[in-house]
Design a protein that fits this description.
The chain has 241 residues and is an alpha/beta fold. The protein has two domains: 181 residues, HAD superfamily/HAD-like (Rossmann fold); 52 residues, no CATH class. The protein is built from ten helices and eight strands. The strands form two sheets. It has a six-stranded parallel beta sheet. It is globular, with a radius of gyration of 18 Å. The mean pLDDT is 95. This is PHOP2 phosphatase. Belongs to the HAD-like hydrolase superfamily. PHOSPHO family. It comes from Dromas ardeola. Keywords: Hydrolase, Magnesium, Metal-binding. Its cofactor is Mg(2+).
Amino acid sequence: MKFLLVFDFDHTIVDENSDTWIVKCAPEKKLPNGLRNSYRPGHWTEYMGRVFVYLGDNGVKEDDMERTMTTIPFTAGMVDLLGFIGENKELFDCIIVSDSNTVFIDWILKAADFHKVFDEVFTNPAAFSSTGYLTVQNFHAHHCPKCPKNLCKRKVLKEFLDKQLERGVSYTRIVYIGDGGNDLCPVMFLKKDDVAMPRQGYTLEKKIAQLAQDLSPVECSVLVWSSATDIMSYLKLLTKE
């Protein structure tokens, strides 16, 4: 019996958006209007690329960014939840699928000593250039009309499960924990034994509720959470099954 836990990152593991948190490094902790207004829906990664150029142009160094990122708060109860998962790794495989980037997630997990909890992290690849600028790329290419250009989380989840099956690993149940609109696509891929855990009051919960109203509900069970303590209570029940 093994369970797969799939976590989003921003507003799920951390209680903020890591991409907007980095703006604290900018002069006067804000971006110029022209840059802020340059975002086009579905093209977040390109937008963040421009933000990183602006930070680099203003002399913001890797150390400044790391210091800022590691002050981002975890969601209520999340530190205890990740500790619990870490102590029960024989029952839980655990992955992150996020629209953040490898550098930010790596810094945050390592600073809190949580990187060992997660088996894999799927997010936009980022690195510092030889001139010290942070650069970010799209995670992959896909043909899903519902998802942002750089990342379809359903595709990531499906490819991960296929790879695990090739290794002889299958899961009794998938538990998907997230908050955003881009978490709906993978949730719609889940089967009836699986569980979607949308964060209370966030877009994913609203979109799942809308589908139910439209009489095309998701196939999996839905459990809403407001603090990670709710998630831990559910996982404790699972371990007793």
